[in-house]
Amino acid sequence: MGRPSVNVDITELRSIIGKLESNGPLASQQELWERVAESFKNDKITAAVIRLRCEANNISIITPAAKRGRKVGVINQLGIRKGRGAKYESNIGKKHIAALKVELGPKYYPLIEKIQAGSIKAAIKGACLFCTGCQPLEIKECEILSCPLYLIRPYQKKAKV
Ligand code: SF4
To answer: Ligand 1 mean position to 70 CA, how many Å?
Structure first.
């Protein structure tokens, strides 16, 4: 099972972001998340938690994302994103990714980025981690033959030839 989620006062969160952005956008969203987290004075409320809560609650911010990092999907000449990754740009897609981050935890953020970019292999691995509460050994030893992912699950023992 996933770890218990950290309680964040969403009204306070909106208010802090409003104050921080009152003079315009900050240099990067990472700086914004970190400064908001500092304002809460609760060790468990990290920049990552702040980011997740903003995504999950559709809190609009004016600070732009940093330019580095992989783009999701491909933008065509009309500026419309194509490919499986495009699904994750919808509101429900963003909520799904935020929920997945809470469930799997920061260790698996790189995997979640691959899922967000449309990787089916990463989604299968994510499904097995979700199923076992992030226990790779349990996935390796999985005996649920009726599961559709059984034969393609990650962490399988290497077959002897
Ligand atoms: S293959 Fe096993 S670990 Fe993976 S989702 Fe199915 S039952 Fe869960």
So the answer is: 29
